[in-house]
Amino acid sequence: MSYQAEYIWIDGTEPSPLMRSKTKVLADGKEPGIWGFDGSSTNQATGESSDCVLNPVFTCPDPLRGGDNKLVMCEVLLPDMTPHPTNTRATCVEAATTYAEFAPMFGMEQEYTFLQDARPLGWPLNGYPAPQGPYYCGVGGDKMPGREIVEKHTAACIEAGLGIEGTNAEVMMGQWEFQIGILDPVTMGDQLWVARWLLFRIAEDFGVWATLEPKPILGDWNGAGCHTNFSTAAMRGEGGWDAIVAGCEALGKNIDEHIANYGVGIKDRLTGAHETARWDRFSYGVSNRAASVRIPWQVAKDKMGYLEDRRPNANCDPYVVTRLITDTICSSATA
After folding, report:
1. Domain range enclosing 8
2. Cβ(233)–Cβ(288) below 8 Å
3. Which among 157, 100, 326, 95 is positioned nearest to 230, based on CA atoms?
């Protein structure tokens, strides 16, 4: 008997990489091993030297095929088994190892937009839907297109064993969110990428495209982010308030590097409107969704917990985001 292993990886498309996958049939009991692919077709190699290597890093049950079938998240290596230039996971592993004593943990809130026929799902063929207001966490068939896809995606993430924590409709019609966590920096990236793959794959069955575009509709409409919750052991412990404030201050001293690496199109989304702070200004505050970094009210009350960096785009690379936040905050604590 055999089973199917779906090998998933991130390609080298610029400015925003795409997800790729292909299926390998394996004998029962045989674990997924390294595999190869044509990097010249994924913007990761030239035709004269086209071979790239898929190295499995995270495996989970395949909730779509069921049975003993598996999803296999891979990092991309060169034939000499060193990280490919597009492999952002490798540097994330380095940061997580360097700052392991801080026990950094993450939860990421992935917003996305369903598109159909080049417009957000549920929007009229001509013009616009009713203004934003009733859609966030709303109920009603005329206002909440895509719920059936969201329900199937949520069930698939649970069956796959991913750390999905919840879902909700977002501010713009056709826009939704799911949350993954609480996980270490590397596992956070592994699981969010797999959850994204499941979302894209399930949307296919409905004739819909799930996009991570940060500003899918210009004008007076909310963009799509990937708000990132972060804590260290010190933040989570008694008296963690000082460590939380210190973390916010550290982020404020490294603005340019974070903005440059938080996703393509970030300046279109971080305008200072629609629950964002401007990309070129930094602020933090309790319960403030117009700040760069929000400290939840419960955290302020308990004087311990976590902070929320609201700047990452929906199309961010989670390996890059978790590495940057870990490095910026933890390195400042050792300075």
Report:
1. 2-86
2. no
3. 326
